[in-house]
Amino acid sequence: MSYGINTTNLANVLLNALSGSSFVAPAVWAQLHVGDPSAAATANRSANTTRQQLTFAAAASGSMALASTPAPWNMTATETIAAISLWSAATSGVPYWTIPLTSSQAVNSGDTFTLLTCVLGLAPLAV
């Protein structure tokens, strides 16, 4: 499995910020996948390739959650959504993170799919 933080586009950028490199917090866009997105987040994309912007609340205790529910996806095919990938832009851009759903969700063409929760965290933490 290749789920997790993208090494080049997010992990190294965050670590380099600790050595004084500038870092600008990016906008985050979510894309749906019907299987493992791969490290590049380009595999197993949903038939609906629209990305929805996510807004996160401030981090606490090493994690952060959605601040609000993003716009739903209008599904264009019957498929099973298994994962999401997080990107730097609505189109093109670079992948930041790939996340499996807690449980896959079957959808039909014409359905809407709404991401109700998304929690990002860093571990282990010294508390």
Folded structure, characterized:
Strand 6 (79-87) and strand 7 (95-107) form a beta hairpin. The protein has one domain. The chain contains one helix and nine strands; from the N terminus they run βαββββββββ. The mean pLDDT is 93. It has 127 residues and is mainly beta. It has one helix at 7-17; strands at residues 4-5, 28-33, 52-54, 63-65, 73-74, 79-87, 95-107, 112-113, 119-121. The strands form three sheets. It has a five-stranded antiparallel sheet. Strands 4-9 form a two-stranded antiparallel sheet. A two-stranded antiparallel sheet has the order 5-8.
Comma- or semicolon-separated keywords:
127 residues; two-stranded antiparallel sheet; globular; single chain; mainly beta; 9 strands; 9% helix
